[in-house]
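Data availability excerpt. The first of two example chains:
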Amino acid sequence: MEEIKAKINELNLELEKVNDERKALKAYMNKLLEEQEKIRDKIGHLRSELQKLRKKRDILNMEVKKLKEYRRNCIERRRDVLRKVRVLVYKMRILTRKLPKRGAESLEEEINEVEWKIQTESLSLEEERQLVERVKELESKLAIHRELKNI
């Protein structure tokens, strides 16, 4: 009987040991479950943050796309303006070479004087023809001044 009691005590001790081990494992499992829940929460938060960041990235990408288009348009407009400026500079150089030494006011005065002379004086056909030619010549010189002024 002593053996049986000893065996029962031994088994009770082993059962107590197993129960303690089971409690420890259950506590460890609960700890792991809590950690798992925390990790799931963190993953959910990170997914939410990732979604926000992706939306922000998409918005920024759209802004970059708009700015690139704006820059391209500005470069194109700049090229057009530079072409026009080059053409105008070229025209100004040509007109400046052709520009008469006399000023526009002086030419206008002479045109008015010659026209007045044609209208008021009695002239031969040859004199009148020469004066009309003179007016044409003066007007072509005056046209150069006006064209240069319009540029």
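And the second chain:
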Amino acid sequence: MEIIMHTILEHIKKAFTKEEEALIQKVSLTYGLYDFIAAIICERNHFNEKEIEEYIHGTKKPKNFIGLKDIDKSVALIVAAMSNNEKIRIVGDYDVDGVTSTYVLLSVFEALNYQAISHYLPLREKDGYGLNKDIVENAYRDGVSLLITVDNGISAHEATSYAKSLGMTIIVTDHHELPPTLPDADAIINPHQLDCSYPYKTLAGVGIAYKLGQALMSYFKLKPSPQIVARIQGLVALGTICDVAPLIGENRHMVKTGLIALNKGAIPAASVISSKISVGTLGFQIGPRLNACGRLESAETALNFLQCEDMSELYPFKQRLDS
């Protein structure tokens, strides 16, 4: 392996300047990395020593929500609904990113002590992917006036128009690539929008939900309990890893922070699956169990598992997921 890596590095060295080669050697020696790996890290971070150090240690601080298009508009719409005690419903998705995104916003509203909040996780067979007219219709019948999508909605033109025709307000938060035309939502939070100045375009859906939660808590000048903060950090790490979002920029820092929280027991359900939690644990042990719920049963089962804090219930719950 070492010979192969050395051969590849020699082949691509022609593309590096002497200064860049020197930095590659420095990084390789400092961190005990193969030259080939050091070269990739240096190139990924534009041969900037500060960025390289932040990348390796995961210390690059995330930006706050400023710069995300429609974030302020979304907060204003939510605050207006809350002021009138209107019913708000979060519509998620059946994969881990969608489930964790939903739980993040539920946790934010819990911190805000807002009671008129509900959620819906689509059934794969019955609903298909994302927001649809039936989901909107059911929300309307339940008296919901504000819909917030997480990890979906950017392509839900028909459902969005239907919600608007019923007099409902709709906020779309999504991280997927944009369709040729956008839905007629009251607000859209998606960093891929051309006029969105937010620098990090690779957030998972849970990262977008987290940003909206940050903005809401900032508006209310709220400092959530350490328990809720740690839970949200763990959820962001779980959703980011399971959606295979690139571990660069603030994703890297948020995953690192979330892993620390998870290893301190922030989400008891995760600790039941593994006493030591790593990126591999999230991606190959916890994630597949949760995704199986969305494929075989209901993503609601995955959410209930993550929400459970009673150890006497968690172990039987885990056995059910394993069966």
